[in-house]
Design a protein that fits this description.
Blueprint lengths: L8 E4 L5 H12 L3 E6 L2 H12 L5 E5 L5 H15 L4 E4 L14 H29 L3 E5 L12 H21 L4 E7 L5 H6 L3 H9 L10 H11 L10 E4 L12
Parallel strand pairs: 1-2, 1-4, 2-3, 4-5, 5-6, 6-7
Helix pairs in contact: 1-8, 3-4, 4-5
Length: 255
Amino acid sequence: MKQKLQNQIIYITGASAGIGLSTADLCLKEGATVVITGRNEERLKKAESILSKTSSNVEAHHLDVSIESDLIDSLNEIYKKFGRIDGLVNNAPSIHTGKIIDLDMPSWRTNFKANLDAVFLTTKTVLPWMIAAKKGSIVNVASVVGLRGTAYMSGYGAAKSGLINFSKTSAIEAAPNVRVNCVIPGAVQTPATERAIPNEDLMEATIKTIPLKRIAKPEELAAPIVFLLSSEASFITGADLIIDGGKTADLNAGN
């Protein structure tokens, strides 16, 4: 059976754990060369070691996506090395919680640096290469918090809502040869979720509000992301794929 991403160059931000790591692993299994980024050097090295057991076609770039020059330098380095970037997954998260009345401007802005500003930078950098090559796929990872009001997560929600809209505009401008789509996860077993839902009681309460009565495994996000990167999704662009176990479909969740 032909691999979905055979010989493709895939660049994934925030891939040292969770959704990014699982996506990188599946991309490698599907024949891609994968570049992973992460701001925690120790965790990134561990991720690279794990992924190298799947395939040697993995390269790790230690960087913080909120630092513009480092992010653009990394993308340029990969483009110079391989002559192309076929797929881009904007996954790196940043969550700063708090009541609106308690947030200061730097705390508010922190939510935008990785979740939206970095996506603008990667898209702005990569899109001309993809358009020139007349092929490419970008998948942005948003959140159901960008679809619904969520207490203490105003900044994160606003950034993810902006990302959903930015994905649609990117899809229009990238057409007809480059596709841009957005996946919208609910609760997933990731370090970010563990920080947002820090105790067992809160986790159980969250699970009760999900029709499928569990939270997702990272690989359950990786599979649709890889699908959207691949030619199997050749007529899908500007789409939002909600992957939340039915959470946002249920008006009465939790009752």
